[in-house]
Amino acid sequence: MTDPPPATLLEMYRRMVLIRRFEDRLTHMFLQGLVPGTLHQYQGQEAVAVGVCAALRPDDVIFSTHRPVGHSIAKGASLRGIAAELWGKATGCAGGKGGQMHLTDTAAGVMPSNAIVGANIPIATGAALGFRLMGLDRVAVSFFGDGGSNTGAFHEGINLAAVKDAPVIFVCENNQYAASMHVSHTLRIEDIAARAAGYGIPGVVVDGQDTLAVYAAAQEAVARARRGEGPTLLEAKTYRYMGHSRGDPGGYRTRAEVEEWRAKDPIPRFRERLIGAFGQTADALDRIDEACEAEVEEAIQFALSSPEPAPEEAYEPVYAG
Ligand SMILES: Cc1ncc(C[n+]2csc(CCOP(=O)(O)OP(=O)(O)O)c2C)c(N)n1
Ligand SMILES: [Mg+2]
User: What is the average pLDDT score of the chain?
Assistant: First the structure.
């Protein structure tokens, strides 16, 4: 693998911190009753979204899930657009009609996220086949969870992509749980990536708390897809710190388990690597932290002060004429 250039490394760090700060701020605001609806949060999994998206070009596309904040920020979606969408405002990335589970920013390659578990797997395959038909060398990424890997759509989507050599990367974020259900109750195998053999494509397990390991695995999968050699199933072992959604206190897991994973937090780990192996200074990284804090506040103020969508626009552009 080639290490990313210094500017990319710093941008990767910035995006990880931006995700964490934004999500943490939302947690606090939610607990104060200031956020409408619910939230499915991404704290703990930042290395996966950022490691994968750093291996993509701006014109490549990603398809996310009910947990789309991290993926969207990692691919470069507007934070203002995301924040305003969470508050259902007219300035939101889906005009206030999508909410937390339907984030999108097509200019940044963030296709509308899909809360139906597993459903984006065949959709990403379709997008990848579309790129091929148009003679483009763009790739598509489908993010989904361990739960998503147990749907029929997983089998259909990956099998079709495999037989067609579609330029798509299937990124399974195995965060150990589908809602309250631990993987030990849903899988007879240790690695979901092992299923790739059943479709005749490479299956790769990667430490999802190690940003550069994810980046390296994604880089290889993307290069393979762009060369026309077909899809890869990448399984990142990771963990979500928060409950499944904001209504979930997470009583089905022990404090020790959560602490064990928090000790492997991807952000300090990447920070230490940037300082130790890439010559970055703590000062420079602190400045990035501060800038992220300010950007989060600015985006939230933008959302809060934005107008509600006009009632007469409720059906636009919901139905095509
Ligand atoms: C087809 C379908 N079944 C059930 C649900 C309800 N549901 C939403 S998220 C979720 C768990 C998904 O777990 P996983 O795929 O591991 O993703 P994670 O939440 O861990 O990111 C379930 C069962 C749904 N949205 N869609
Ligand atoms: Mg899961």
Answer: 97
Q: Which residues pair with 182 in a beta bridge?
A: 177
Q: Whose CA is nearest to atom 4 of ligand 1?
A: 117
| CA 175 to ligand 1: nearest atom | 20
Q: Is 178 in the pocket of ligand 1 (CB under 6 A)?
A: yes
Which of helix, strand or coil describes residue 169? strand
Q: Kindly indicate the confidence band of residue 316, based on its pLDDT and cuts at 50, 70 and 90.
A: confident
Listed residue (172, 171, 169) closest to 183, CA to CA = 172
pLDDT 10s digits, 293-305: 999 999 999 999 9
Residue range 192-239, pLDDT digits in tens: 999 999 999 999 999 999 999 999 999 999 999 999 999 999 999 999
Q: Which tens digit of pLDDT belongs to each residue from 54-101?
A: 999 999 999 999 999 999 999 999 999 999 999 999 999 999 999 999
Ligand 1 mutation pick, 64, 66, 143, max ligand atoms within 8 A of CB: 66
Q: Please give the Cα distance from 64 to 70 (Å, whole number).
A: 9
Strand-strand pairing, 232-237 and 168-174:
parallel
The closest alpha carbon to 281, from 10, 23, 76, 2, belongs to 10
Three-state secondary-structure class, residue 182: strand
Nearest of 83, 96, 101 to residue 38 by alpha carbon: 101
Distance 45 CA to ligand 2 centre (A): 11
Q: How far apart are CA 103 and CA 38, in angstroms?
A: 14
50 close to 14: Cβ distance less than 8 angstroms: no
Pairing mode, if any, of strands 140-145 and 181-182? Answer: unpaired
H helix intervals, the chain: 6-31, 46-53, 69-75, 79-86, 120-133, 152-164, 211-226, 255-262, 266-276, 282-305
